[in-house]
Write a structure and sequence with these properties.
- By secondary structure, the protein is an alpha+beta fold.
- It is built from 14 helices and 29 strands.
- Helix 12 (537-549) runs parallel beside helix 14 (591-604).
Length: 609
């Protein structure tokens, strides 16, 4: 889905509630290092500088009053239609008013040659017809809105700064900038054929660069060209080609180019329930996402990206070998201390957290995901680096020692550890892949006999203690009766074959109890936190893929059609959706949602790996 409309041509501005746009209203733009969120009304409400996991310059999505934003919109009533420039992450927003039509093109530009700003946000404003009064306002919110900016001029150019960060506002034909105590603003009027340009040029512990208009325009065209070149090399086919292509571009936004790490999402602390406390920082790379990531990159025809990602993954995990951390920073670091910011949160959803204490949890399933990732890479390339091979053997030995321990599980519960079934299944996958690699001579088989024995012991544990005859389904934890949509990964990651009756029963139990239409909740039972959450989009795509793998292609395709229609007007997904309202919840764009879409589309389309 590349475009969408807000309705009547010149009827109304997109709605906000207490200053907050619906999360569904956000599009994302980025440059491989950071990501900005742009609302339908033209406001940039989120941007971190210099990197995706850095502090913010704009964070109005977390505090409409203090967070800071960059607004740009007609000064009269308007309707909105927007799209991504085809095959790019460059956004076009068309405002239609009673007086005329104007188009805004937004991009985080990609550097070409020569001296460039550390980061650059370009906003080009073109008059398409009539005459439209426009207003813009840059209100910086450095350090998550906790540091007041100093605003002045350098060589006549408006500049906002705080500490080691600075932002210059360069304008051409966009009105004379006015500097106030906490903002830089301007007004101008478009006419048919007119073109204005506003460039926000950022510096962080570096000199502030003032580019020329020609340089900015050239970088904008270069940015479109680079995105198109990347998309042209992808293998996106089938009935959901457009959704897969957009998901691929969304994932590319989340790739941190300096390291090849992939962030789980671009944002922090967006709530899983409005007014609730389930507000987490997702600007890290989760081991759990690795198998889906590598599989998607291979399915999309991105072997270089897949190879680079594996090397980052093995570099990061080397720091804690043989134990794994649940998540790593984008630079490969293992520490992510959680703290609370003095912000009100999206629509009053506090606390606002940065950092993530889940990094220190024991989550045993991640060993299976990592070894599945290595297995996929080896199957695709036919080889494995000798050092990685040694480490794989060490990880398998660790799984033999630790699989019996209770853990926090795939959903990172903050209640007491349990014997989660999904964790045991993935420990089985870890040892199974190790045995297969040893049998192929890829890794040393010195301990393969022990891996086989423990693999059998895990299977016996799961089959005797984690299956409910009454439900005809695997259950969330040993000895329990609750359900868990994560159990679908037992099929997707190879714990059981598609024709295994117990997996079939689990699929039906998930559909009966956790699904409502296309929406699937993660689990039943308590998790140590108050409140509730929305339906988890990745679980819905997992269900569609499971149906396809079990030969139920028509059901899978029907569900897939409904899920693709749930994207916002520019084809993006958040982490969750409220089934009652269709409202987006959680951080966005969410990598796992888009990864699961790609995997399901490929499986249903017959290119299952």
């Amino acid at each position: 889905m590349e475009s969408g409309s807000s309705g009547p041509a010149a009827g109304r501005r997109p709605g906000r509630r207490d200053g907050y746009a619906p999360l569904r209203d956000y599009a994302a733009i980025g440059d491989g290092r950071t990501v900005a969120l742009v609302a339908r009304d033209g406001a940039v409400d989120w941007l971190t500088v210099p990197d995706l996991d850095s502090e913010t310059v704009f964070a109005a999505v977390l505090d409409a009053r203090r967070g800071g934003r960059f607004t740009l919109e007609p000064a009269v009533a308007y309707g909105v239609d927007r799209r991504y420039v085809p095959a790019t992450n460059v956004l076009e927003t068309t405002f239609t008013t009673a007086r005329g039509v104007v188009r805004v093109t937004d991009a985080m530009t990609l550097p070409k040659t020569g001296l460039t700003p550390v980061r650059e946000l370009l906003r080009r404003v073109e008059g398409l017809s009539g005459s439209v009064p426009m207003a813009w306002n840059v209100v910086p919110g450095f350090c998550y809105g906790t540091r007041a900016p100093r605003i002045g001029r350098r060589a006549g150019v408006p500049v906002a700064s705080a500490g080691a960060s600075a932002c210059a506002v360069r304008t051409w034909d966009a009105g004379e900038p006015r500097c106030a105590r906490d903002a830089i603003s301007g007004r101008f009027e478009t006419r048919a054929g007119s073109r204005a340009l506003i460039a926000l040029c950022f510096a962080h512990q570096d000199p502030l660069v003032f580019p020329t208009r020609a340089e900015c325009e050239e970088r904008l065209e270069h940015t479109c060209s680079v995105w198109r070149g990347w998309v042209n090399g992808r293998t996106c086919r089938g009935p959901w080609k457009q959704a897969v292509e957009r998901s691929a571009l969304a994932l590319k936004l989340l790739v941190f180019a300096p390291s090849a790490a992939i962030a789980a999402a671009a944002t922090s602390a967006l709530p899983e329930q409005i007014g609730g406390v389930r507000n987490w920082d997702y600007r890290f790379s989760w081991i759990r996402d690795s198998a889906f990531t590598l599989n998607a990159l291979l399915d999309l025809g991105c072997p270089d990206d897949a190879h680079a990602y594996l090397w980052w993954l093995m570099h990061a995990t080397q720091l804690t070998h043989p134990r794994l951390r649940v998540l790593y920073r984008l630079d490969g670091g293992a520490r992510a201390p959680e703290r609370t910011l003095p912000l009100e949160g999206y629509r009053g959803s506090a606390p606002v957290r940065v950092g993530n204490d889940a990094a220190g949890q024991l989550q045993l399933d991640i060993y299976g995901e990592l070894l599945q990732t290595v297995w996929l890479h080896t199957a695709a390339t036919g080889r494995l680096d000798a050092d990685i091979a040694r480490r794989v053997a060490g990880i398998a030995d660790l799984v033999c020692r630790t699989w019996r321990e209770p853990d926090a599980g795939i959903w990172e519960v903050r209640s007491s550890p349990q014997q989660f079934t999904h964790s045991k299944m993935m420990c089985w996958v870890a040892l199974d892949r190790s045995v297969r690699l040893a049998d192929r001579g890829v890794i040393r088989n010195r301990h393969a006999g022990r891996w086989r024995r423990e693999r059998r012991a895990i299977r016996e544990f799961v089959e005797t203690r984690c299956f409910s005859e009454r439900r005809n389904s695997y259950v969330r934890a040993a000895g329990g009766h609750e359900l868990d949509a994560g159990l679908l990964l037992g099929l997707l990651h190879g714990y059981a074959d598609p024709d295994q009756p117990r997996l079939g029963g689990t699929i039906e139990a998930v559909r009966d109890e956790l699904a409502h239409g296309p929406f699937v909740r993660r689990y039943t039972g308590e998790d140590g936190l108050p409140g509730s959450e929305g339906a988890f989009l990745a679980c819905s795509f997992w269900l569609a893929e499971c149906l396809a793998r079990c030969g139920r292609q028509d059901e899978a395709a029907e569900l897939m059609d409904r899920l693709v229609a749930l994207a916002n007007d520019v084809g993006l997904y958040s982490e969750e959706i409220d089934p009652a309202t269709g409202e987006f919840l959680g951080n966005m764009p969410q990598a796992l949602s888009h990864l699961a879409l790609i995997s399901a589309a490929c499986a249903i389309g017959g290119r299952d790996r």
